[in-house]
């Protein structure tokens, strides 16, 4: 669970490196390699996410719930136990190596592979609502007492016993210079020469909402991301894109599930970093931004009434305006509608338009809780960017196109584009929701 411990100012003499992103508004897995999942014991504590919407409000019908058996759900609000995702979030970042895999060069060089890029990415994605501060109070490699192989770390490894032993050893090594009560989450940047290359197997993993985690300074190390190797595909873009494994992993500590499946990124493609985090930059879905508290209630519409309703959507990449339209079809699922354009974190959008996708809170992480509907099936897509699922790159709906779900009596049509680039969208329901 996420500890609700007293928060204290970081003492300057204990902070060797600090990346700070100033919040504009303090409002209220594994890496995306096929077959990988975040190890996420179901959280039980309350209060990690600041979403405060009442289910009796106009948005109530759209606050779909996860099932009890779902480990990491798309339901809103996010259950407690995860890290906060708005306001100032302090990320304790430790660089570790092993007797048989000594860290090359400076540990702060490893830190520099991920920061300030990760903090900048979160600032852009959250419209400044997340003030992500990565802190490295121990500016050197923390040497573990056992060889890397002794921990039994491999793809899909459970928390016990290997990761429990590793966390205990990390705490023992760091504790003299770190007060764990000062932080909201833990990033462990493993020396890249420990274990196989990410091209061979992806080891990066997150243990989120872990109620069985060891404690440090009286608080559980419940939300921890581990990053191994380097996600370098040989295209020469590692310096610009290699950091993106960490925003993906931190997505889990904020309660987001994996959107790729054992078959890869074919369900969502490159429309969310929880689906594909290799290669070119991409953002989060609007549904995830609402789930994380980065969209205000005024930026979300809930289309639950019978008849036809008209809406205007502004680009997800830009601050302000209506961002998300949701059409519930059950208490656990519905269709999310948003406008995606090239801007912000979305550098590969090659067909700007309205993205329509099914969200199912009853489907678990890595099993396909989100499915993007392709407006141009079997087109081959409109991008040739490496590590981007091309087929869904042109999935967006353009003016004059319509999505129809006859089973639930729902039709979503895309109208015109105004002078500011906003899109008109209509929703027709043949019967009321509920």
TrEMBL record:
Signal sequence, renumbered to the chain: 1-32
GO biological process, one term: proteolysis
Entry keywords, A to Z: Hydrolase, Metalloprotease, Protease, Signal
Signal in keyword set: yes
GO molecular function per UniProt: metallopeptidase activity
Presence of the UniProt keyword Hydrolase in the record: yes
Transmembrane segments: none
Official protein name in the record: M6 family metalloprotease domain-containing protein
């Amino acid at each position: 669970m996420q500890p609700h411990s007293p928060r204290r100012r970081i003492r300057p003499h204990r902070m060797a490196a600090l990346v700070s992103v100033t919040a504009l508004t303090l409002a209220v897995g594994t890496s995306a390699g096929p077959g990988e999942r975040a190890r996420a014991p179901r959280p039980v504590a309350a209060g990690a996410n600041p979403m405060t919407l009442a289910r009796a409000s106009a948005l109530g019908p759209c606050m779909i719930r996860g099932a009890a058996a779902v480990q990491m759900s798309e339901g809103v609000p996010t259950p407690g136990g995860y890290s906060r995702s708005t306001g100032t979030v302090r990320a304790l970042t430790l660089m570790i190596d092993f007797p048989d895999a000594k860290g090359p060069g400076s540990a702060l060089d490893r830190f520099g592979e991920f920061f300030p890029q990760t903090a900048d990415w979160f600032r852009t994605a959250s419209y400044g609502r997340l003030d992500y501060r990565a802190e490295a109070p121990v500016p050197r490699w923390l040497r573990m007492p056992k060889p890397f192989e002794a921990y039994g770390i491999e793809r899909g490894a459970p928390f016990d016993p290997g990761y429990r032993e590793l966390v205990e050893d990390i705490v023992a090594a760091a504790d003299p210079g770190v007060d764990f009560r000062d932080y909201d989450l833990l990033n462990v940047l493993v020396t890249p020469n420990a274990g196989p290359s990410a091209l061979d197997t992806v080891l990066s993993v997150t243990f989120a909402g872990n109620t069985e985690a060891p404690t440090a300074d009286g608080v559980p190390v419940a939300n921890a991301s581990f990053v191994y190797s380097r996600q370098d595909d040989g295209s020469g873009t590692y310096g610009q894109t290699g950091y993106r494994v960490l925003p993906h992993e931190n997505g889990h500590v904020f309660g987001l599930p994996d959107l790729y499946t054992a078959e890869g990124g074919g369900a969502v493609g490159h429309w969310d970093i929880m689906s594909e985090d290799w290669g070119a930059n991409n953002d989060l879905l609007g549904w995830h931004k609402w789930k994380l508290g980065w969209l205000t209630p005024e930026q979300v519409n809930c289309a639950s009434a019978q008849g036809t309703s008209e809406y205007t959507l502004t680009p997800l990449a830009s601050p302000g305006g209506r961002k998300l339209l949701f059409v519930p079809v059950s208490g656990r699922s519905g269709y999310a509608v948003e406008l995606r354009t090239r801007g912000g974190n979305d550098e590969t959008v090659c067909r700007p338009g309205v993205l329509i996708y099914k969200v199912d809170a009853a489907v678990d992480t890595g099993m396909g809780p989100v499915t993007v509907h392709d407006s141009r099936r079997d087109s081959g897509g409109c991008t040739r960017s490496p590590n981007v699922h091309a087929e869904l790159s042109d999935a967006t709906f353009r003016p004059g196109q319509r999505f129809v779900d006859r089973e639930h009596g729902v039709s979503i049509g895309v109208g015109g584009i105004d002078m500011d680039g906003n899109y008109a969208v209509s929703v027709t329901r043949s019967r009321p929701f509920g």
